[in-house]
Specification:
Arc Repressor Mutant, subunit A; elongated
């Protein structure tokens, strides 16, 4: 119980906005969120109530619900009025509250004086270089999908690229392809502009480099997805 509580409080310290979402805003987020919140608190109460297997005196059946409610209220008040030391410093007093009705005052006092583990150092964030640095364009999923479609099968026509990238409007796909061609990311190897035949688009060296970087950064693109 102590390890789980500490992990939760340390996570909330790292993600304060997510903590407020889970603890505060979930109470007023609608019926579905309220029901899920109630189920989660009920499961927590059931876990705490397992302490009665070690209890010298059997506490009231609603003790666990009271413990969960008390802990939740304290965490919520700290989120509303943040403390400079964060939430993880609450692990000892909160564990005292949890242990008291099941294991007695001696166990609760021991929880108050237990040393806290060293804080876990945050993991270094992976820095991904901007694949469009120096390219005057906005990155969208549609752009990524077009580059991915051309990379997967070069010399596609406008229509085929639109189908694979999920762009049904031929005017939009033509405009996007023209923009990418101006940026020298793709090149038309077909004769569509001169003889009425279909275009045949390929990635340029710069386009291949950007497409590979985007694929590594965001994973394999699924052409079936939409914005």
């Amino acid at each position: 119980m102590r390890a789980g509580l500490l992990a939760l409080l340390e996570f909330f310290d790292r993600e304060p906005r997510l903590a407020r979402l889970c603890i505060i805003h979930s109470a007023v987020a609608g019926s579905a969120a309220s029901e899920f919140r109630a189920q989660t608190l009920s499961r927590l109460a059931a876990v705490i109530d397992e302490g009665r297997t070690s209890a010298r005196r059997q506490p009231s059946p609603v003790t666990a619900e009271g413990v969960v409610g008390g802990v939740l209220t304290i965490v919520q008040s700290r989120l509303l009025q943040p403390h400079p030391e964060g939430l993880s410093v609450l692990v000892n007093p909160l564990m005292g509250i949890i242990a008291l009705p099941y294991l007695g005052s001696s166990a609760a006092e021991m929880e108050l004086t237990r040393p806290l583990p060293a804080p876990v150092a945050p993991r270094a964030q992976m820095v991904i270089p901007d694949p469009l640095e120096g390219v005057n364009m906005r990155l969208t999923y549609r752009t990524m999908s077009v580059l991915s479609a051309i990379a997967a099968q070069p010399r596609l026509s406008n229509r085929d690229i639109g189908i694979r990238a999920g762009v049904a409007d031929q005017g939009q796909i033509s405009k996007l392809l023209g923009r990418l061609a101006q940026l020298e990311l793709i090149v038309n190897r077909g004769k569509g502009q001169t003889s009425g035949a279909s275009n045949a688009w390929e990635l340029t060296a710069k386009g291949r480099k950007i497409e590979r970087t985007l694929r590594r950064a965001s994973g394999t693109l699924d052409p079936a997805r939409r914005d």
